[in-house]
Design a protein that fits this description.
Layout (H helix, E strand, L loop, with lengths): L1 H31 L5 H8 L6 E13 L9 E12 L3 H6 L1 H13 L3 H6 L2 H18 L8 E9 L1
Antiparallel strand pairs: 1-2, 2-3
Helix pairs in contact: 4-6
Length: about 160
C-alpha cells in the first residue's frame, strides 16, 4: 500500500512539473513573438522545410564620417552573411557586388560616435533598411531573406 502511494505522489509531481514547464514554454514563446524583428519575420515566411543557403560578403571596409575637429580617421570592417533559398541562390550570387555597394554606402554614412554605440541588431536594421530601399527603388524582390553580421571591427 505504501509503494502505491509513493508511486501516485511521484506521478502527480511529475505531471505537475511537466504542466508547469509547458506553461512557461508556451508563455515565453508568446511573449517573445511581438518582439520579433522584420528580418526574423521574413525568414519565417519562407516555406517550412525549404533549405537555406548562406552567402558571405567578406571584408566590407569603410571609412566612417568624421565629426568637426576630429583629426583621426576611423574605419569599420565587417563580413556580412545573407540567407537565401536554394531557388534564389543564383540571383543572390549575381547581386553580391550590388549588395556590397549598398552596404558601403549605408555604413560609410555613419559617424564614429554613433557606430561605436550601435548594437549588432542596429547595424543589421540599417543594412536591411538600405537593401529594402534599393530593391523598392528598382521595383524588384530581394533575392534573400535577411542580412547578418559575421564579423565587425571598429577602429
Amino acid at each position: 500500500m505504501n509503494k502505491k502511494l509513493v508511486l501516485i505522489l511521484v506521478a502527480v509531481l511529475l505531471l505537475g512539473a511537466g504542466a508547469a514547464g509547458g506553461a512557461v514554454w508556451y508563455l515565453k514563446g508568446n511573449a517573445a513573438a511581438p518582439a520579433a524583428s522584420a528580418s526574423a519575420k521574413a525568414a519565417e515566411e519562407k516555406k517550412p522545410g525549404e533549405p537555406l543557403k548562406y552567402l558571405t560578403i567578406e571584408k566590407v571596409i569603410v571609412m566612417l564620417r568624421r565629426q568637426p575637429g576630429d583629426t583621426v580617421p576611423h574605419y569599420m570592417s565587417c563580413d556580412l552573411v545573407i540567407s537565401t533559398t536554394v531557388k534564389q541562390e543564383k540571383e543572390a550570387k549575381e547581386a553580391l557586388p550590388m549588395l556590397r555597394s549598398v552596404a558601403v554606402r549605408a555604413l560609410s554614412a555613419l559617424p564614429m560616435e554613433k557606430a561605436a554605440m550601435m548594437t549588432i541588431d542596429q547595424f543589421v536594421e540599417e543594412l536591411n533598411k538600405a537593401y529594402d530601399e534599393t530593391y523598392a527603388k528598382e521595383q524588384r524582390e530581394r533575392p534573400f531573406q535577411q542580412v547578418m553580421i559575421g564579423k565587425l571591427i571598429l577602429e
